[in-house]
Fold this sequence. Notes:
By secondary structure, the protein is α/β, with parallel strands linked by helices. The protein has helices at 8-16, 30-40, 57-63, 84-96, 108-112, 116-130, 142-145, 148-161, 179-192, 207-221, 238-246, and strands spanning 19-22, 41-42, 45-46, 49-52, 70-75, 101-105, 135-139, 165-167, 197-201, 231-234. The protein has an eight-stranded parallel beta barrel, surrounded by six helices. It has a two-stranded antiparallel ribbon with strand order 2-3. β9 (197-201), α10 and β10 (231-234) form a beta-alpha-beta unit. α1 (8-16) crosses α10 (207-221) and α9 (179-192) runs parallel beside α10. The protein starts with 7 loop residues before the first helix and ends in a 12-residue tail after the last helix.
Amino acid sequence: MAEDHSDIKAVAARALGLLDLTSLNDDDDEAAVDALCERARSPHGPVAAVCVWPRFVAQAAKRLHGSGIKVAAVANFPAGGDDLALALSDTREIIAAGGDEVDLVMPYRRWLKGDRDFAKEMIASCKRACGDKARLKVILETGSLGDSAKIYDASCDAIAAGADMIKTSTGKTAVSATLEAAEAMLCAIKDTGRDVGFKAAGGIRDTAAAGDYLALADRIMGADWADPWRFRFGASGVLNDLLAVLGDGSRPAATESY
């Protein structure tokens, strides 16, 4: 059941600064990345980060220099395969180009087959590659993991392997972020006692839905926990609704690309 948000404008203002504005379309080009970076500097303040393909990291970093907006890019995306060398290559490419964050898809199919050690090895290897230059955000693909118990266990494995943030989804599967998955992940973060963040990605399209996730985080983790370091939304389509709630309906519609 959705939460009752008494001040939707306050929710929108809070969510805006937690947004990873994302463009991961197959046909993205330099113009699309420039437009994304421009949208990231909203009239009501900057988003937390932009998330792009590795090949666009240097471009985004140059466009956003001095803005405080982080540049993230995806690794082992979207399939979440078991090619460790490829995952490491993606990670190193992102870091070499000046990326601040790496969004790595856990090899979730391998994990589901019982090879949890391999999944942890990939995460740990990419974390070592990040060093102190970039944060590692691990995508669990919760819609494919299924029940809350598996999502909780995968969350604990990712955290144990060194994830700086755990993330629901690629946005490329039939089921993306859900409140049930988010609850399992947040409970895992709380139970491990690690200072690890959470990102809800895919299918969050309006301010009320964003508010539901924020209310859940407040309930489980405490009212002061969900800051831009620990909590993100991976969505682009929601920006239009946030701006409309905040009083700016002039921006063109964005294509949900994540």
